[in-house]
């Protein structure tokens, strides 16, 4: 038995490219999710993959190793430099792009914005479930206008005129400014940082929530029994509270919550997260793996500085050893009954329902609760009024960084843009 091993001792797939190694397999939008599944089935929760020019890289879904990376070593395992540079260019100094003390200060301001008391007051989510979305580029070009809004809101807050037309809004920007003013002056966010948070929440959150909603509707169309049961719960709530369900009423719908949890577990909008080790580190394993010699058992992996690491959200959320034999099935009922002891024993470091969907640790998704509320609100409006059925078109889910649906034509080609066709009919009593 080998208790401590370097990456080179691990088993792994054969390189498919002499130059790029397994990189084409890891990032091919049409086949990468299948590749993650094959790695999990063939090698367990950790294996060696080859990067460009033969570099050794680590693929991991082991709960203890992930905990070490995103919790204990969150400052020593960062996203790749090229990705962080791109994020900073797009969003600016947002909580997802900064580190160290700046990140701690921003989280200190952001976290209270998404508490239950604040969420009850937010008006950022419309009750109309279907609305036209502006083009991202056009919206980003309105940055100067947004800066003007920040200036007006700051003036209103500083003057104490919170009931004015500008400052009274129960929106995220106002909540951020109020919370920023509540901390010590040296910890307050600059206008640039406030704008970066709003951009990050609006645009990064839009793609992931859209993906989750699309996938859930697709699942409901394929599982009519689940859809019928969900509609019954929603309509019972309508009879009790009216059709405009508030924060607490939405969260009281246990089956709606179970459907959302199961959809997000089985089909996370992001399949994997890339990290780079900035220092040497030993990663203990919860699930030991067999080394490539076929005999030794690896329980600890030594990772050297500069090593690229691929955290597989998809594999962690679907591991049968953790979730049970039906881990690959869409079964919302699992959340309404006792979960298997193997799940609690694994101590998955995810911040949401023992899944890795929203990551975990200090750098977990700050807008998780907002995303959940938006998802529940849209689903309750849609499923409460419409029946969703599968269409004749085959839907192919590709991983474009965020998993998105495409229509697969009869010749095997895919639609140029993400799209999903379902049969939608108005239901009785809608």
Which key phrases capture this entry?
alpha+beta; 43% helix; 430 residues; 15% strand; five-stranded mixed sheet; three-stranded mixed sheet; 17 helices
Your description of this structure?
- With 430 residues, the chain is an alpha+beta fold.
- It has a domain at 5-90 and 271-353.
- The protein contains 17 helices and 12 strands.
- It has a 5-stranded mixed sheet with strand order 2-3-8-5-4, with helices on both faces.
- Helix 10 runs parallel beside helix 17 and helix 11 packs across helix 17.
- The longest helix is centred in the middle third of the chain and has 32 residues, at 191-222.
- The protein starts with a strand and ends with a strand.
- Mean pLDDT is 85; it is low at 128-147 and 161-168.
- GO terms for molecular function: heme binding; iron ion binding; monooxygenase activity; oxidoreductase activity, acting on paired donors, with incorporation or reduction of molecular oxygen.
- Pathway: Secondary metabolite biosynthesis.
User: How many helices in DSSP terms?
Assistant: 17
Q: How large, in whole angstroms, is the Cα Rg?
A: 23 Å
Largest beta sheet: what is the strand line-up?
A: 2-3-8-5-4
Strand content: 5-15%
| Helix-strand string | EHHEEHEHHHHHHHHHHEEEEHHHHEEEE
Mean pLDDT: 85
Q: What portion of residues is helical?
A: 40-55%
The poorly predicted ranges are 128-147, 161-168
